[in-house]
Amino acid sequence: MQTQGQVRSANLAAVLACLRDGGPRSRARLADDTGLTKATVSSLVAELVERGLVAEGAQVRPGSVGRPGTLVELAGGVCGIGVEINVDYLAVLALDPRGAVRWESRLALDVAVLAPAEVLARASATVSEVRANQDATAVGLTVAVPGQVQGTVVRTAPNLPRWVGTDVAAGFADQGLPVTVANDADLSALAEVSAGPHAHVADLVYLTGEVGVGGGVVTGGQLLRGSTGVGGEVGHLALTPGDAVCGCGRTGCWETVVGLAALLRAAANPGDPLRDPGLDLEERLTELAGRARAGDARTLEALAGIGTGLGVGAAVLVALFDPAVVVLGGYFAHLGEFLLDPLRAALAARVEGAADRVALSTLGFTAAVRGGAHVALQPVFDNPTTVPPEASA
Amino acid sequence: MQTQGQVRSANLAAVLACLRDGGPRSRARLADDTGLTKATVSSLVAELVERGLVAEGAQVRPGSVGRPGTLVELAGGVCGIGVEINVDYLAVLALDPRGAVRWESRLALDVAVLAPAEVLARASATVSEVRANQDATAVGLTVAVPGQVQGTVVRTAPNLPRWVGTDVAAGFADQGLPVTVANDADLSALAEVSAGPHAHVADLVYLTGEVGVGGGVVTGGQLLRGSTGVGGEVGHLALTPGDAVCGCGRTGCWETVVGLAALLRAAANPGDPLRDPGLDLEERLTELAGRARAGDARTLEALAGIGTGLGVGAAVLVALFDPAVVVLGGYFAHLGEFLLDPLRAALAARVEGAADRVALSTLGFTAAVRGGAHVALQPVFDNPTTVPPEASA
DNA sequence: AGACAATAGTGCAGGGACCGAACGAATGGG
DNA sequence: CCCATTCGTTCGGTCCCTGCACTATTGTCT
Question: HTH iclR-type domain spans which residues (chains A, B) (predicted)?
């Protein structure tokens, strides 16, 4: 009852992975692709159908001789939910095994000043709303937070100091779902390798420009965590000795060079609306991009400085991690058109052939929640027997 | 015949891993520890005995009631062989599954000036000698080279330029063994996590001081390779902008700061025997250590500079990889007593709590061959059925 | 000294999962 | 209208693990 069940699980997972990576196909082709027998595949598919994970689709094109096969495809019977708690918003996204977005919402919320308990209550209510408004059964929940996480507890959160020590999972206990809590940049990195132009890339570095600089590193297909869970933290790399003082108390941290604060300081005087933290960040970035497009010298110079600073740091990351691509998210993606050229120049001067390994994220602000939903769904692909039979209609 | 065999393999591997990690024990205890049945364990052990991988040992102490068990322990019926080809020597080491060294040799050889084919012939002859002079059956061969490797071909080798493009595995084709070729620092890193004080550490950074600076990174128990196989290459990190010119043509590379050349330049004038490349490196290092112990100001200052430089770079590595420990090998280990204090000071100033995460390698010059032998042995632990029955007496 | 409890290891029937071959089903071509 | 071809299912066989019964060996208690 122990090890043969594992064989079954592994083979169910193999069929599921095959359908996910290569799209719908007939049982006969599944048998070829997995190396299993047609008989076994039939049995496996029957079980997956019963669990609501796959469904029979259309007949295959009758273009050739022989009996046409019945396509087997992933079903949307279950979904994973990603929640992001950030400084000024709450985002939720649900993903089904096909990769289809089943829910997406974003709620402006002044998380920084509200009590964590209240924010968690709101978030959990939103999750309940998601689960009530669709037929896919939720199998898991992942919460992204802008800080370092130990287990399900926030350990550090520079921009959400009230949240340090909060057990985020406890806020969703009434959902009765497995809850994972993780760093937002890490989840974004996972999102990048799970969908979009860099799907299935095994080695990727994700950099996100927010107030600070966040990073997530995927090596060998696995998220780099490190011995204490803070691996891949790029913001406080000491790259430029003896420079500006960072919020962490040290000097020369990378985020003092390429963080949002550094950009705005370089691009605008104190009275400038760009530097008004009361205004919406996206609007300010749009204004900045407008000035750059209009050819404003100071703005262009500031952006070039950021781009060069990014290149200097990215050179270190490329040399150490050797990623297939460095993906820029957050404000870096917003202003990418002005950053990429100086970034590539600085990178090319330091690491050979690295200039064309930089790309802008196409996932926008949904990266973290998307990664979270993907993580929540992962156990289904790893072990399909975790989904009870007849989970869906 | 396909998947149930995999079950068998996995269970054989589980028993083997249990014995390796926890030492000899009775079948009954093996059953408890693996979760398998006593009957199954008996069957598995019988098969492993037949393959020469385990053997029955002494009776267990009759200190308590009940029938005493018969200890089952790893046997030395097979071995993995590690070969290191370096600038001025050829080293070979054989390891059996118990971790016992079955052979160890080191031959001074001017590899840099000899033809690769000749060196390979010598190396292969030594391997044949190893195999002839003991009863353990060789199951694999790993060759460490001081450079980057693609497949079994040397891609770059700063100190062995003649070897670029050489297919190292081809030189051992007559052995009829699976041959792996890998970077020496990578193998050393694996050696550090497979034996010694840091065995089973999942996240470790290994730094070796040679002519250049080599690095190997283990994250999550896996060697970091990167998308093109050059991950973890620390020598050419651009840390100090616009400084000394490196052999790679760029400026500010880390190895221009902490490489052997930098140390010797700082510690001795051109005429000094320390800087005579004709003399044995170990002797020169011993001389240097002697001067330092005698309190020579210039020597101490040079060493402190190296230590500080190491700390600056190590800070970046610790921040990014978050290793449990940074292990220093090569000449860093030789002169560790003079380097550790300034290194720790520089590290502590940049990353909190990192100072006690530095240690000196205890494997000395055998690290690379030891890691190679370990890698060669790995398939046996992963899938014990690869070893034919009655492989040993 | 003898009975009993405790622990180690083996033998055997049973069941789960996969494999291989044979069979019915559906389609295009001659 | 028959046949080749391909798809999917059914059925017997094999492998391996499990659970239980059984033997073997030792210490302890009476």
Answer: 12-55
Q: Which residue is nearest to nucleotide D23 (CA to C1')?
A: B67
Length of chain A: 393
Contacts of B349 in chain A (CB under 8 A): 250
Greatest CA separation for chain B:
76
CA distance B325 to B309: 18
Q: What phi and psi values does residue A348 have, to the nearest 5 degrees? A: -65, -30
* Dihedral sign of CA atoms B10, B13, B15, B21 in order: negative
Long-range contacts (CB closer than 8 Å, 24 or more residues apart) made by A95-98: A95/A370, A95/A373, A95/A374, A95/A376, A95/A377, A96/A136, A96/A377, A97/A16, A97/A20, A97/A53, A97/A377, A97/A380, A97/A381, A98/A73, A98/A74
Lowest mean per-residue pLDDT among A47-61, A112-126, B50-64, B124-138: B50-64
Which tokens is A285 given?
């970035």
Instruction: Determine whether the interchain pair B232/A320 forms a contact, defined as Cβ–Cβ distance below 8 Å.
Output: yes
Please report, rounded to whole angstroms, the spatial distance between the CA atom of protein residue B67 and the C1' atom of nucleotide D24.
Answer: 8
Residue of B222, B227, B306 whose CA lies nearest to B263: B306
Of A203, A219, A320, the CB nearest to B234: A320
Residue A165 buriedness (CB in 10 A; 0-12 / 13-18 / 19+): exposed
Which residues from 54-113 of B have any strand C atom under 7 Å from their CB? 64-70
Residue with tokens 């992963």: B382
Token look-up 């040993």 returns B392
Strand C atom within 7 Å of A61 CB: no
Minimal Cβ distance to A7: which of B3, B231, B233: B3
Q: How far apart are CA A157 and CA A165, in angstroms?
A: 10
CA B321 from centre of chain:
19
Place of tokens 């950053």: A339
d(CA A155, CA A167): 10
Instruction: Return the residue in B322, B327, B356, B357 with the most chain A beta carbons within 10 A, the one to mutate for interface testing.
Output: B322
Q: What DSSP character marks residue B78?
A: E
- DSSP letters of B107-119? EE--TTTS-HHHH
- Determine whether the interchain pair B226/A237 forms a contact, defined as Cβ–Cβ distance below 8 Å: no
Tens of pLDDT, residue by residue over A305-339, are 999 999 999 999 999 999 999 999 999 999 999 99
Cβ atoms of B330 and B206 within 8 Å: the answer is no
Residue A295 tokens, joined: 């050819």
Among candidates A224, A316, A349 on the partner chain, residue whose Cβ is nearest the Cβ of B219? A224
Nucleotides on chain D within 7 angstroms of protein Cβ = 4-12, 14-21, 24-28
CA dist A255 and A330 (Å) reads: 14
Distance, in Å, from the CA atom of B389 to the CA atom of B191, rounded to the nearest integer, reads: 28
Distance A386 CA to D9 C1' (A): 27
A64 and chain B: CB distance < 8 Å anywhere? Answer: no
Distance of CA B245 to the CA centre of its chain: 30
Q: Give the model confidence (pLDDT) of A336-367 as tens digits.
A: 999 999 999 999 988 888 999 999 999 988 99
Find the DSSP H helices in chain A.
Answer: 3-22, 27-34, 38-50, 116-132, 184-194, 255-258, 260-267, 281-293, 297-321, 331-334, 336-348, 367-382
